[in-house]
Amino acid sequence: MPSIVKPTAAHPSLVRNKLGLTIRDYEGSMSTLCAGCGHDSITAAIIRAFHESSTPPEMIAKMSGIGCSSKTPTYFVNGAHGFNSAHGRMPAIATGAIAANRSLTFIGVSGDGDSLSIGLGHLAHAIRRNPKMLYVIENNGVYGLTKGQFSASADIGSKPKKGDPNRMQPIDPMLLALTLGATFVARSFSGDKEQLVPILKAGLAHNGLAIVDVISPCVTFNDHEGSTKSYISSRKNITRVTEMDFVPPEQEIIAQISPQGKTAVTMHDGSVVYFTSLPEGYDPSNRLAAYSYLSEQQGKGEIPTGLFYVSTDQPELHELNATPDEALVNVPYSKLSPGAAALDKLMEGFR
Amino acid sequence: MKPTKIKDPNYFHKVVDCQWACPAHTNVPEYIRLIAQGRFSDAYMVNRDSNVFPGILGRVCDRPCEPACRRGRVEEKPVAICRLKRVAADHRQDITDRLPKAPATKNGKRVACIGAGPASLTVANDLMPLGYSVTVFEKYDKPGGLMRTNIPSFRLPEQTLDEEMGYILEMGVDIRYNSPVESMKGLLDQGFDAVFVGTGAPRGKDLDIPGRQEAAANIHIGIDWLESIAFGHIDKIGEKVLIIGVGNTAMDCCRSSRRLGGKDIKVMARRPRQFFKASPWELEDAEEEQVEIIINHAPKRFVLENGKLVGMEFERLEWDAAAKKSTLIDTVILPCDDVILAIGQDNAFPWIERDLGIEFDKWDMPKVDEKTYECSRPGIFFGGDAAWGPKNIIWAVAHGHGAAISIHNHCQGVPVTERPEDGMNLLTTKMGISEWAYSNDYSSSKREKMKHVDLVERFKDLKTEVEIGFTAEQTAREVQRCLNCDVQTVFTAKRCIECDACIDICPVQCLTITRDGEEEDVRKRLSAPSINLTQDLYASDPLPQTSRLMFKDEDVCVHCGLCAERCPTAAWDMQKFDLLIQLAGSEACTKQFA
Question: Is A8 near chain B, with CB under 8 Å?
Answer without folding.
Answer: yes
